[in-house]
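Recall the central idea of this unit: under ordinary conditions, the amino acid sequence of a chain determines the structure it adopts. In this exercise we apply that idea directly, starting from the sequence alone.
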Amino acid sequence: MAEVEDKLKDYEIKKEGEAEILMLKSNAVFFNPVQVHNRDMSIAVLRTFVSKRKEEHEVLLNKKNKSHKKGSQIETSVVNGDAALTSQHDEMDVVNEKGPNQAINEIEDASKEATKTPSWKVTRELKPPVVLEALAASGLRSLRYACEVDGLEKVVALDNDKASVEACKRNIKFNGAAAVNKVEAHLADARVYMLTHPKEFDVVDLDPYGSPSVFLDSAVQAVADGGLLMCTATDLAVLCGTNGEVCYSKYGSYPVKGKYCHEMALRILLASIESHANRYKRYIVPVLSVFMDFYVRVFVRVFTSASEIKNTPLKLSYAYQCAGCDSFHLQSLGRTVTKNNSVKYAPGIGPVVPQECSDCGKKFNVGGPIWSAPIHDQDWVLSTLTDVRSMKDRYPAYNKITSILTTVSEELHDFPLFFSLHSISGTVKCTSPSAVMFRSAVINAGYQISSSHVNPLGLKSDAPWDVIWDIMRCWVKNHPIKEQPHDTPGTAILSKSPQIEANFSRAVAALSKAQTKKVKRFLPNPESHWGPKVRAGRTITSKHISLLGAEAINGAISHQEANGAATDKPASDTGETITDDVNEPSTKRQKTSDGEQSTEP
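Accordingly, the structure predicted from this sequence is:
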């Protein structure tokens, strides 16, 4: 017993769902407990995929059965009675010519063949799905897939870090025979592995530390037809517009800053995946796309069709964002022209906006292209939500994922991006109307409106911007504001008379079903410092306090000191322990003797 305790003194046992892993206290292998939301959502969607896959296979078999029966009925009607009589006489003659025993044997063989399944019914059986986790680290995600999702054949876990693969293999054994029989770990570059195994995996999961852009090209080739690609991107500073030029180099789209930036991040990622898939005559169908915590996560199905990829320009758009107010407009890349029952593809007609905003007179910033088609499949979302609710005890993050799925299920799926009620109120410098009153005004004007899962204040609507601003003009008319400078966007908007008279009386559909039932839709973080963690292998120092918190910092530093990894330092006035950063790789540029700048390794 003492030997076992001695071996485990450098490890912590982490349990999540039905899987347990041994984690080194030295941060040698990356593990982030925050990603339980990500893993739970992935398991929920994977369960839906397994059931949908079976349903689709049964539909395909029934379709083949019906087509064969229809063909056999036509053949039977063609055969006339004379032909049938002739065949009976011929068979009797053959029996008479042969010996009695030989004739009986042939008749028995014929009866056996008749009882066998016809050739048209012999189709390839639906094999259990094979899952690939391209960046496994500790292997916790793979282990949860194997232990919690029924009907999987195997899960392949990859990593190009030797310590991670060793940890993954150790955790597979730690979870017993069920995991050993289903999960296998390999030391390999995920890109090379996926390229050398084309269309072999029914599910491919990409959850990198940062951008997934370098893995997308090989990932879309590794997924089988109709398979599921799950992809995470945590580089939201890039995708949301802080570094637009970096976003273009990685994803092929230029972001614009707006309240909808996190939804735009989802649409940029989807457009990038579609672009990679199109190069191999493949296309994607998004089933669920969510923004959670500090990352975006998309679930798409991948299909092969040379004709279907012609529709890709119809799914992509450029975004025009006004630099003065919140108005935005979308310009489709392509369109279809129907003539004489034939469909031809043509470039989109534009521009959709003038040089200056018709509402405030300011210029437009242009971003994109982004995915402007629906980012969710309503049937999938509802099926996933129903399944999650029926298995509440099996999801550690049940409250979080149900809140997200509930909000997603109530979104308007056909209208990209959204606006913030507080933001448009800030533009005209007025007190914001309540969400119920504003939504009622939009509904009473004859348009649709819904919330967004991305932002509690976000509103999605098919109402044009002149209607949105007319509603705000009517609101300001009833709730006067102080005089504003003449050169502000809000003054320019309010200087125009409203073309409609807004009706703020409460509409029946102003509250969604979840709001009516008081279902929690936007939950706070379960604990402080709920976010990204330090990359594996980095020495934890006081500069990571914003990510981990003072308590976690002191615990990690104490462990490092016990192992001789850090030198003693006095505690600071705030109570946190400080260590030298000598083990951290320095990226600061220093001047050399000849005046040139160099970077320390």
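The first helix runs from residue 2 to 7.
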